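Input record (one chain):
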Amino acid sequence: MKPLRVLLLMHVDLVPPDSIDGVSEEQMQPWKTEYDVWAGLCNAGHDVKKLGVYDDLGVIRDAIEDFKPHITFNLLEEFHGVAVYDHSVVSYLELMKKPYTGCNPRGLMLAHDKALSKSILSYHRVPVPDFAVFPVGRKVRKPAKLAYPLLVKSLTEEGSVGISQASIVYDDDKLVERVRFIHNSIGTDALVEQYIEGREFYVGIIGNQRLMTLPVWELGFDNLPDDSAAIATSRVKWDYKYQQRVGVHTGEAKDITDALRQKILNVSKRAYKLLNLTGYARMDLRVDADEKVYLIEANPNPQLAYGEDFAEAAEAAGINYEQLMARIVSLGLSYRPAWRTD
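The corresponding structure, as predicted from the sequence alone:
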């Protein structure tokens, strides 16, 4: 790929330094993705401008007019502190008729509304856990169709925000308590879904129309306490010391049959297409003891840090980090939104 001018969008608090000399791994963790993507693009010979964004679209317009990027690499996961507004930023780029990386606005909107995405997938017979939504301010009453144990989480937040061991509830009192926690502490409606006891898998997918699936990845623990469930809590995702203590690890799934592996890949690809995703995404799945596969969440524009799940799965598929960045950029340049007529 010839050298390009790339505008790299990120949260204003996550703009990384140009050098990580003297920075510990723990200190780097909040903005590791932003640094790794910036460094990967620079190492590939591109001219990259980092741009921190919070609540002003004007800074994007100014940067585009001044820098004249060939493409905008989108690492924003929220706007104005609201996770579901990320699709509006991409819509703005489309209105400006500017190419960008990652998922299109419709796919972001569908995937980030977990209830809507589950309804779409369920309609098309993609297996998802039974679920219900508890809006802020409404009385909490379990529908008859839901059986304990249940998992309670935010309807719209990503990155395991608000998820802990206490998110799995076994009776009405704990259900009410946890739903109120989501309402009061996270500030969003609560999604309550059937808890699937079993193994947790991830599938990375790259593509617009033609899809490439990365090797099936699995979440594991070396030292998880016996009374803890093997789920991706907020501490598992973001607490470095906790990760070390319980031995969190992910890697290519072992000890699964070819038939189960293919079933996981098929469910993932179907969900990707049904939710109108483009660019790249990570699909989260659970598999129970009877090897029934459930699609838990679709995550467009997942974390791209070097050494994390998506990049590691790509590496296992023979795609190194710089090649992965090149594929994502190429898909962004080739994506055809409504404004393109060429």
